[in-house]
Amino acid sequence: MKQVRNLLIAAVLPFSLLVSCGESQKKTQETRETDQAWKVADSIRTLIVEPNFAKKDFLITEYGAGSDSTVLSTQAINDAIEACHLDGGGRVVIPKGTFLTGAIHLKSNVNLHLEDGAKLLFSRNTTDYKPLVKTRWEGMECMNYSPLIYAYGQENIAITGKGILDGNANNEHWWPWKAKKEYGWSEGMDNQLAAVKRLTQQVKDGTPVEDRVYGDGHFLRPPFIQPYNSSNILIADVKIINAPFWNINPVLCENVTVRNVSVVTHGPNNDGCNPESSKNVLIAGCYFDTGDDCIAIKSGRNEDGRSIGRPAENHIIENCEMKDGHGGIVIGSEISGGAKNIFAQNLKMDSPELDRILRIKTSSLRGGVIEDIYMRNVEVGTYKEAAVLVDMFYENPGDFMPTVRNITVENLNVKKGGKFGVLINAYEESPAENLKIINSNIDGVDVPIQANYTKNMVFDNVLINGKLVTDEDVQSTSEADFEKF
């Protein structure tokens, strides 16, 4: 008997060593793949260079601006920008004080600089955002009110300084156009609903952009900061409050840095930073406390996103803090042009009013390919819904099946989670592919994993509610009843 036992041990031991060796090789391969991915991030970083400006200052008070916050300084500010631009560039300086203004249009080689104690207070009069300009509104191109700060086809532009940009929106101004009672709207008041429906149909019909005319009578709120088709952009150090709509929205831009910016605004669609169809973007050291997504990466809506075909590409997000918001790092939903090479690291998130940590939202109305998304080193206090969410049913279905693949989340630590740990709602014919969660700990969730259609989903050294997630746990999620959320 002893001889048989020894023979069995001798037979089993090589097999055990083989399995152990195989698992070790698998983990080594995964480590190698993630290391290689972050080397790509390092190479992207070298492509993102902040613009430089001539050492010349153009003080807006020398062009007629006054710190009487009841008198518009729009003309003086734009005159200073024009003079700076024509003189080869430099800083247009907003000194200490509060200056009331309408739309500000940046031009090449101009740094709009707010000194300590300076505030730009934006007008509530829609006339001050005319003439209408070419803009994107929720990923759809149109002619609408100018964004509060706008640039079209410019290069080497910046908004810097320790001052405040105040959009001056509240439940009496701008926000009620959303048609939500919690934002001051009541039955019979003007709202955006008819215009959104009309614009969506025009996009579907391929109506030329110059014929998609909005503005007065349509109630589409303008974005706060929207550089459009521009390059070499810096937004640094300012605080942004009370936005009418999206806060920082570079569209079709390249080489964008958003650094040490604070966004605190809780109105409807008050997303913090929405780089859209843009390439080589760095968002670093920022603070977001918002009424919508903190950072939402986008690439156009439906036909506009597909026809232009510019993905969101090469984004690095790091050393940021997120409080309230629908999501911390979000991709979508206006993502028809696709997204790739998105890197997020060294983040802090903590709020019972933060719904998700990593959120991917799309639909078969949107389409597009979302791929090569990497997140690591994220410390989370609490959130409401899901730590990692992939939702392919965010809006009504259509004829353009979305693809979501190659997502790696590493070193995610959650002290007190919400409803779900990981939540995947995908199509059977387009499962979420190659989702990896590595070396992570998620505590305090009601439902550890809910996933219907996935392919090659991997949990490597992941604890959820103190229990190590096994291959059997992953397999059982696809066989369980899917709980609506």
Automatic annotation (TrEMBL):
InterPro entries: GH28_Enzymes, Glyco_hydro_28, PbH1, Pectin_lyas_fold, Pectin_lyase_fold/virulence. Keywords: Glycosidase, Hydrolase, Signal. GO terms for biological process: carbohydrate metabolic process. It holds the Pfam family Glyco_hydro_28. The keyword Signal applies. SUPFAM superfamilies: Pectin lyase-like (SSF51126). Transmembrane segments: none annotated. GO terms for molecular function: polygalacturonase activity. Belongs to the glycosyl hydrolase 28 family. This is Glycoside hydrolase. It comes from Sphingobacterium haloxyli.
